Amino acid sequence: MSKILLINPSYRDSYGSAKASIIDPVFPTLSLLTIAAVAEQRGHKVEVLDLSFMQYDYRVIREKIVSYKPDIIGVSATTPLMNQLRDISVLAKSISKDILVVAGGSHVSAMPVESLKESMLDIVVVGEGDATFGDIADGKPLKMIFGIQYRKDDSILATPPRPFIHNLDDLPMPAWHLYDSQFYKNKISRLLAKHPPLAMAEFSRGCVFKCDFCASKNTMALGYRKKSPERCAEEVRAMHKFGYREFALADDIFTSDPAWAKAVSRAIINSGVKMAWSCTNGIRVESADDELFRTMRKAGCYRVAFGFESGNDKVLKMFGKGGKASIVKGREAVRMARAAGIDTTGYFMLGLSPDTEETMTDTIEYARSLSLDMMKFGIAIAFPGTPMFKEYREKGMLRSYNWDDYFIYSEQPLFSHPNLSFEKVQEFAKYAYRRAVLTNPSFILRRLWRGIRTKEFFWDAYYFMKFITAPSINNKTHTAIYFARDQWPVYDFEKQPITFYQARPATNKLTPELIQGVTI
Ligand code: B12
Ligand code: SF4
After folding, report:
1. Residues 256-295: pLDDT tens digits?
2. Ligand 1 contact, 216 CB (< 6 A)
3. 7: helix, coil or strand?
4. Nearest alpha carbon, ligand 1 atom 25
């Protein structure tokens, strides 16, 4: 039996003081809960150290490692968390060389070789980590474990890619018991959760579209896989049993196979469990469907977020949104959701690869004109693992490899845009909030009326004050307390190559089996 410590790094610096901090996303981390479930199923002991809600402080981690004495430490990291991951690897090795330090998640899946080179990690898990991590915990010889890259003496070795999980019902239930749901009740923003505590859940994995700013294929592959409606309802029952009263879906395209999404909603209704839920990760506008929305509402769904991204049809086409997404479809989608009694959030991006000042203005005016209950503007950052990152790198347009600065409210110039300066994009990000939120009478009145109707007026007023006093983009310096920044191995990204690792090159072509009920 292995003793495992899973660490979720701090989110403080990537949300920080920006306006977006009003939606602080503090909840149990699904990636760790899913890999923990497999490890527990195989007889290993697992504990989670969650730093999401606090500032990164290596002393907290050191104390835990010294008292718990894990054999394996597993860390999950998106790009802005990579420096914490580097620090944790150095810290763990300073405590004991025998601790196996493993990383997984979006960033390291995109750049496994470079991640090993700029850290003291032993193993990087590429893509889906459920069974791979189970094999590592079992102590299987590394060369026999598919889907990893690892350090051996002075070299880095890779094993063949792991085929992705065909039937998601084969996964054990996420190990929700590893988190104390009540601890999280008051930590999450009330703009994000109506009935906290909130858990993150996934009913499906993957996506069949190819937006150039999106990194989802690196971990979840091109293609769509779904749990059975019965399994989804069983998960809702389990979350409820562990004290959660709301869940948010991590799914990339939950409504894009409407027949299945309806069946899932009906299964939740039939389970008799009352849970509020939302499609927080964003759904596609062309998947909007009156009957589906009404069924979702009956099943407890109270909010959907639409990934509008742009207010210009040409831009949508050019960055690869794909499908039938359009400005007109976006308007229809908002109307249908509202008619079903579901709140709507809009996600918009500024500085998309084809954007110009005119098209960003189109986006802001489009956002202003929609009857949304909430909206979020982010800068389209070229994150590692996205086609945008690869293209900008190849054209010599990337300006920073400091992962601390990689988040959508960053004020550090991260790349040179083909048509715009980074500073111009930031200017538009500030202007977007002013124009579409703060000086938009129809938004203010709608939100006011909604606040009175739902009795959430107090929360709205509280967050409104926070919103107007916080800057649009994060302008504070990072305050993480690192163990030994000077001991982090360095990889010179400017001068050395990046291996654009493709976990599953064979799946770049969409077959009917991969599309699975989605209209593309
Ligand atoms: C939920 C979510 C969040 C949550 C939680 C993030 C988290 N740390 O888990 C919140 C809201 C905090 C968030 C924030 C951000 N996110 Co986010 N998020 C997602 C989302 C929608 C779902 C992730 C999820 O839970 N999936 C379900 C679980 C089961 O899958 P998973 O996390 O991939 O984990 C599996 C594997 O990756 C692997 N694995 C993961 N961790 C580990 C650890 C170990 C030890 C092992 C062995 C394996 C392993 O095994 C797991 C099981 O198979 C994804 C979209 C997507 N499709 O992945 C984006 C995504 C991960 N986010 C992304 C981005 C850009 C961000 C932000 C940077 C945006 C910003 N604000 O600037 C921030 C980062 C700040 C932060 N603090 O993390 C990008 C990642 C790009 C990148 N290069 O890092 C994604 C891929 C979105 C996209 N479509 O491009 N996000
Ligand atoms: S539809 Fe969403 S998940 Fe799919 S590629 Fe576009 S942004 Fe990524």
Report:
1. 999 999 999 999 999 999 999 999 999 999 999 999 999 9
2. yes
3. strand
4. 30
The model's pLDDT over 68-102, given as tens digits with 9 standing for 90+, comes to 999 999 999 999 999 999 999 999 999 999 999 99
Domain at 232, CATH number:
3.80.30.20
Residues 21 and 65 reside in one and the same domain: yes
- 0.90 exceeded by the pTM? yes
- What is the CA(292)–ligand 1 centre distance, in A? 27
pLDDT of residue 147: 95
- Indicate which ligand has the atom closest to the C-alpha of 204: 1
- The structural domain count of the chain equals 2
Q: Is residue 196 part of a domain?
A: yes
Using the Cα atoms of residue 365, residue 366, residue 367 and residue 372 in order, give the sign of their dihedral: positive
Residue ranges making up the domain that contains 35: 3-127+129-163
Judge if 147 and 266 occupy the same domain: no
Q: Give residue 477's pLDDT band: very low, low, confident or very high (50, 70, 90).
A: low
Ligand 2 centroid to residue 252 C-alpha, Å: 6
Instruction: Using alpha carbons, select from 220, 189, 215, 188 the residue that is nearest to residue 203.
Output: 220
100-104 β-sheet, strand order: 45-50, 3-8, 72-76, 100-104, 123-125, 148-152, 155-158
